[in-house]
Amino acid sequence: MFTLRQLEFVIAVAEEGSFTAAALRCHTVQSALSHQIARLEEAFGARLFERGHRRARPTAAGEVFLRNARLTLQAAARLQEEMALALGTVRGRINIGQITSLNIVDVPALLAVFRAAHPAVDVHLRVGMSDALLADLDEGRLDVALVGVGPQVTLPPQHRLLHEEGLSLVMPPDHSLAALPAIPLAALDGIPLAALIPGAGVRRMVDDALLGRGIRPQLQYEVTHSEIQRQLVAAGLAVAVVPASMADHMAGVSVRPLAEPFQFRTCAVWRADPTPAARALLELLQPLAR
Hints:
alpha/beta, five-stranded mixed β-sheet, three-stranded antiparallel β-sheet
């Protein structure tokens, strides 16, 4: 009734928003792509797209078709991967996510070892905040994610703890709080703070703790990477709360532990039914597990 190539055409139109862009993506001419989609619509007796002047949008029937088309393509790809594994080769595609500020795992070194062991695997890496990575994992856009979260975040059963640590305050070297051996959260009240953007695990931990205690720092800087936090602190513009292991590697700042016993966890999380490539990557991560 349909071919995998036809399913790819429908998904491309939905994701690109036009038949022209979908044809370019699929390396075919628009007339051929349109003809194949028309054949599908005739076979199912339903229009899959509303065709406008500039955009093509899936109909209600099209959304049903898309959801099942993606599952079908995933199943077909999985069949190829499992058959290759049965013949002694790990192949396919793996989508990996990692948080922006990650120092527990040397990801480039990890991927170099993985590529040497499994050259037939197509590796894709995405960097983002923990909340977004976990959502992508849940929706099937990632196979494995390296995230940093607090204990208030419930992870799926298929996760592995790689590291657990407290949080530290990084300050300009001449900051008055540097005289304290440990910094209570209450000391942050009213002072300029450089934080990661919402969605980061540390940001969520700190926001929840501050809100629960009625502490209101001046949130003046929201950034996407800990190195920018370090630069802002070293310039005397703010303080920042970061994982202890990260603080220990920051130059040009003073570091003190937070007095409260935070538990920041770096974890590997994966889909419930991992592909052969994902299983191979998790084997490489196994020595890091606690």
